[in-house]
What does this fold into?
Amino acid sequence: MHAHVILAAGQGTRMKSRLPKVLHPLLGKPMVAYAVEAALALAPERLVVVVGHGAEAVMEALEGYPVAFAKQEEQLGTAHALLQAESLLRGFPGPFLVTQGDTPLLRPETLKALLKGVEEGAGMALLTVELPDPTGYGRILRRGEEVLGNVEEKDASPEVKALKEVNAGAYAFDGFLFQALKEVKNENAAKEYYLPDLIAIYRAHGKRVVAVRGEAEEALGVNTREELARVEAVLLKALRAHWMRQGVRMILPETIYLEPTVELAPDVTLWPGVVLKGRTRIGEGCQVGAYSLLEDTTLEPGARVHAHTVAQGAHLFPGAEAGPFARLRPGAVLMEEVHVGNFVEVKNSRLHKGVKAGHLAYLGDAEVGAGTNIGAGVITANYDGKRKHRTEIGERAFIGSDSVLVAPVKVGNRALVGAGSVITQDVPDGALAVARGRQRNLEGYALKKLGEE
It folds into this structure.
């Protein structure tokens, strides 16, 4: 049984952003959520997130998680931030895990190792990593696994600067924690209270401080846009590798972006530049063409999306295909063997089996019956300036090119609409509807106009 505190109060000025640092997204999820999920994997008795800058936004982003919030009104350093959690943890005997909201790669296994250090008798355990270039980090002095101190670079001798082991900012403490925090001083240039000072305080009270060595990549923190991109690259590489091991083919995998919420089946093929977001589900054997974006979209087994297609909130059934350059908006449902071609936009419409809309059409708020053909330039005019209206097209109908169906309107089964018509009234089953001016040919008019007769 343990408690966990995540420090997420900092502003992150080096991000150059109005968004609080811990809310910057990584693969569609706020950075701090990774720290929360790693903490929850160990089932803490209590989980507290210390907020400060942008507190309301951070609390809103974590609304779905079982966390309590403590507020740091004034950002006075990491030790001061941790002290703000005391009232929520009063009477809890420990041990305590403490991590940062800006280290999203920390694994539950590493946190478990920190806890084990305290459970085996240490008063404090801290995560350390070895960096090829430790410039800017405090160096760890130790004897065996016991930590003797943390020396900031500005105070380090050349011999200490040569050390490559640094403090990664994750800790476990025994029940002495909050008493020790009250002994931290702010005798430094920034006048702030820092967690590494607890090393000397714990040792002064005769308590052992031990180091737990972690992987350098795992302890990557985010303070700049470059570091955010670096962490996201690590997450993406692992996610791509996971799906390729599950049987997904990625052509130029380094160009493919996908989020942890996406689900892929074996024998899916993703061409270069594909972007997969949100609750996207792609079934067995599907292909997604180059530079397509799918968000909250389902492809049933055997569906196909061609290059440069954008689908958001769409559902494609087996044998359906869209693109290239198609746009499927929320509520677009393409049943079996539907073909939607280039520069066709579908919104909140169901296209039944075998419908074909080859090019340059807009189908919004429509029901299109099986086997119907939609010509080039067809528009369902669904909006009257105040409300949306539906268009119903029957089975095996033929809608001629450049026609406008002004909703609400119905076109019957096996009906024909002549090219260039503006349909404002229902068309019965099997009828031909023509709604356009009659053609007249004025002999010689063009030559007379040009003065060539």
